[in-house]
Amino acid sequence: MYPLCMIVGCGGQGMVRPQEDRVPGGLVALVEPRGTSSEREDRLIRRTAVSHQSASAAEIRAAVGTTVTQRTVRNRLLDVQLRARRPVACIPLTPRHCRLRRQWCQARTQWRAEWRSVVFSDESRFCLGASDGRVLIRRRPGERLQPNCLRPRHTGPTPGVMFWGAISYDSRSTLVVIPNTLNANLYVSLVIQPVVLPFMSSIQGGIFQQDNARPHTAAVSQRALQGVDILPWPARSPDLSPIEHVWDIIGRQLQHHPLPAQTVPVLTAQVQQA
């Protein structure tokens, strides 16, 4: 907020006055002055922010040794489109992982119609009370512990339900509920025999994709999939499978559901209806 003397126009020696911009209707809008940082300080601020991406405005200010305010530091960074954002979560990859992923992609750069024959499969777990951490509420002072201002969450292992599913170019499998911890025998009896084999037989020249989880690569699972063309899959590469987008869509629908699930059976039904 501007000091009263700046708004009404009375001034004094050395006072910094805001710039004036004309807006429609002939009104005058006050624009905050740029600040007092020098070009050298601006360069140091930008250089420090780029080399230390997780540094706060206060840390950048201290590292540069400038006397400008933290707000000025943030403004200088905004001038060059350097905005604070939450980092994208990812799986750590070794150089070997990166090399195998690159080789896998390069071997299929010419694929076009072939992708229509690929069936992508995966498991995903949905939990009660799952949140992206950005849910905000509006409340008055003193209402912090009011029941309508609380967001209950489970302690310990969060109750939830695991699903298996598969998609292809123009079709999808049924969602399979995994009632317990998935192992190879359960994978064969609940997924491969009743769902995967019939689904693959309906796709001419179908290629089945699954990741390298132990239930998938176990000998009993491999025997059950004899006769099915399997797509080799690089380790630690869930981002290469389009089915991850399906799970994300379902997760967002659950977050915006008007009646968030409070029990596992209700959560199961909501996932199946999504």
UniProtKB/TrEMBL annotation:
Tc1-like transposase DDE domain residues: 118-257
InterPro entries: RNaseH_sf, Tc1-like_DDE_dom, Transposase_5, Transposase_Tc1-like
Gene3D superfamilies for the chain: Ribonuclease H-like superfamily/Ribonuclease H
GO MF term list: DNA binding
Residues forming coiled coils: none
Stretches assigned to the Transposase Tc1-like domain: 43-107
Biological process, per Gene Ontology: DNA integration; DNA transposition
Superkingdom classification of source: Eukaryota
Pfam families the UniProt entry points to: DDE_3, HTH_Tnp_Tc3_2
Protein name: Transposable element Tcb2 transposase
Species name: Araneus ventricosus
